[in-house]
Model the fold of this input.
Amino acid sequence: MKNYDVIIVGSGPGGIFTALELVKLNSGLKMLLIDKGGDIEHRSCPAIIKNRPCAEFNCNLCGLLCGWGGAGAFSDGKLNLSTQIGGFLNQYFDEEKLSELIKYVDDLYISHGAPTEIYGTNEKRVQKFIDAAIKYDLKLVPSKIRHLGSDRSIPFLKGLYEVLSDKIEIKLRTEIDEVIVRDNKAIGVKTGKGEELFAEYIILAPGRVGASWLEKEAKRLKLTTINNPVDIGVRVEVPATVMKELTDATYEAKLIYYSKKFDDQVRTFCMNPYGEVVKEFNHGIATVNGHSYAEKKLENTNFAILVSTFFTEPFHEPIAYGEYIARLANLLSGGIIVQRLGDLKMGKRSTPERIKRGLVNPSLKDATPGDLSFAIPYRCLSDILEMLEAMDNISPGVNSRHTLLYGLEVKFYSMRIKLTKSLETEVPNLFAVGDGAGVSRGLIQASASGVAAAREIKKRLTVAGTAG
Ligand SMILES: Cc1cc2nc3c(=O)[nH]c(=O)nc-3n(C[C@H](O)[C@H](O)[C@H](O)COP(=O)(O)OP(=O)(O)OC[C@H]3O[C@@H](n4cnc5c(N)ncnc54)[C@H](O)[C@@H]3O)c2cc1C
Done:
């Protein structure tokens, strides 16, 4: 009955790095990697190509998020090498083990073509900012970053496809409907077309885009789940020179602040020196994001300010809450709202004229000048304004009235499935990794979780005498 030794669902970094680690066994393991999306050459987004709202297209499958490379394919490819950033793996591995895993994964990225240059290594310069930040209630989390860049990401993923397609079977455009469990053990998966595929071990790496499917499966299989928070905020855009000293030292400054008024955690996220603000689509909702190029420097720097929102009983739907607020911003503007900070503080909506005479030239051209206070809850807006004030002390000019705020930026994190320290679910032989399982929220930790699950499987196969 067994067709394969291992079946992996999802070809994002979680699934790809599980496969990469397992093929290192070089033992003739029979492995299948399945993804519901297409190959990298044929992935595209009509909303972006035609510059129209995502909701107009009714795509069966999101070309931006699904397919070879997963959600990371068109990403900025910032590889964050800190154990404290990009996921929750520090709750499964101690500091030493997680550092080793991240170093191992980073080396794999380099060996497959990531640049060797690394940012945030000048400890003296970084320390200067850590010391300055603390005086204003800000914590700067030092982190080393490797930058793949949006322009290098696709060739990198093509390279990984070539390496793996020789050694394992890859089935794209194949959606998995169910995990097959018999006698309380995972034994296979069932495709959307009803085909049953069997294996000794199943690894689910469906990413954020597959999180609702995984949640449904978790309910059916009676797996324990835990809610993660939803992060809501704005993308901030300033002239690159305003942030230059800070971004030269850190590349991406991870700043954490606890607001005075609400004691909420507020943080910077995904800083893009000399980058541009972009639109992102999720289940028909337009949200905002940012990226930068490895080879091209633009005039502005952007970053997100996010407020982590936890919920009290009996509310258990952080994703629905985030979607509701993002939809509100879409409803008011037809997509993304842009507002000058000065206008927001004066209680005025921004107009195309006011944006035009501002000092920051918006990089996202089709955002609608408007008023973010109609969409963002007061608590969240108050937290964001406090954070900008605090940041102005270490990067003067950030809190300028000309600074642009784009909304909304929402980070939906999946619920977390209860997993063992080896990332196995409560169903034996069924593993869950990456963003979909709620253990990561970035490329490096998604990849590292895949490697960790692969190592456990490798150990068991060796004991069983299957590994070569
Ligand atoms: C615009 C954008 C920019 C980003 N920039 C960065 C960055 O600079 N740095 C960083 O660290 N992170 C970044 N991220 C986050 C990063 O891309 C994710 O953390 C990472 O891709 C998660 O990897 P994953 O393997 O868990 O899931 P994903 O990459 O989401 O891959 C999951 C795959 O599973 C497939 N799938 C889902 N369900 C099924 C099913 N039922 N059957 C078959 N296949 C299925 C999907 O088609 C998808 O291809 C960015 C994300 C986005 C969207």
About this structure: The longest helix spans residues 443-464.
